[in-house]
């Protein structure tokens, strides 16, 4: 039985990544893999701000562009 491999070339914060996965990869999974704190991260996906409730339902495709912005508190 052959295993399907998903391959993505994505741009995250102006850095190219080539991702291989055995299942479709969501924005949520990529953000967790890159160790971004999900509750403090704003994601721009292909030029649009993503609703955090939809992170698990939006899957990557080759040539997607993401900007990950982390909110930092301070005084």
UniProtKB/TrEMBL annotation:
Keyword Plastid (UniProt): yes
Swiss-Prot/TrEMBL keywords: Chloroplast, Plastid
Origin superkingdom: Eukaryota
Family matches, as SUPFAM superfamilies: MoaD/ThiS (SSF54285)
InterPro entries: Beta-grasp_dom_sf, Mopterin_synth/thiamin_S_b
Gene3D superfamilies: 3.10.20.30
Protein name per its UniProtKB record: Ycf40
Naturally occurring in which organism (per UniProt): Schizocladia ischiensis
Taxonomic path: Eukaryota, Sar, Stramenopiles, Ochrophyta, PX clade
Primary gene name: ycf40
């Amino acid at each position: 039985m052959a295993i399907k491999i998903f391959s993505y070339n994505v741009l995250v914060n102006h850095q190219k990544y080539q991702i291989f996965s055995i299942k479709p990869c969501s924005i949520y999974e990529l953000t967790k893999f890159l160790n971004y704190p999900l509750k403090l991260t704003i994601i721009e996906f292909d030029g649009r701000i993503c609703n955090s409730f939809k992170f698990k339902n939006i899957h990557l495709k080759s040539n997607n562009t993401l900007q990950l912005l982390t909110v930092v508190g301070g005084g």
